[in-house]
Amino acid sequence: MQARGRDRSEYPAHGGGRRRLWRWLWKAPLLAVVLSVLQVLALRFVDPPFSAYMAARQIGAWTGRDGEVRIAYQWRDWERIAPGLPLAVIASEDQNFLRHRGFDLEAIEKARAHNARGGRMRGASTISQQLARNLFLWSGRSWVRKGLEAWYTVLIELLWPKQRILEVYVNVAEFGDGIYGAQAAARAFFGKDADALDWAESARLAAVLPSPRRYSAARPGPYVQRRTQAIQRQMRQIGGEAHLQQLR
To answer: What global pTM score does this model have?
Structure first.
């Protein structure tokens, strides 16, 4: 009698497993895109309880990598922040904030030309780019992070109005070692609430943003003092608080 062949179902379905794997690999980027869009859209309406940078600092403190640090953070709505602070941030960090859509091509070209000549490196990150980094990503330099930063910047500019971008930025920016946001900074450095900050105090907070763990808003050195004065001049030059009316 001729032996019967084995049923095909008895053989492992290697081909089917590979097909399922490829389907998941194809879907993973699409899922990541959808989740990131939902994430940014939700934070247009929901105030973030923390940022990625805050989480990284806290984890670093728990693991002993960053030493001891206490995170100070308290959300304040736009109406409860002195207008001088967002104005100072625009004047010092991104004077084309109202005109660009996340990337200041003019500033990028100027920075490229400056850096090509040598000397101190100059950046060209907009407020939107800095917010994308602080809120969603990690510190450091890599092409992966730069790509994600660009993606989140596009989403923020598409899904949020300019006022919301500024509101979240001044709430999550680091103004001192472990001190995040306008309210925590105002209490720590000036003993007042964020809505009571005057122009000089707002400009001083903006002056330390490039390196808040190196420079102090409480004990400003010569650099911070000079930069504070320059920011106040720029605040007047761009139109003062009337400049913020264009956000609405």
So the answer is: 0.85
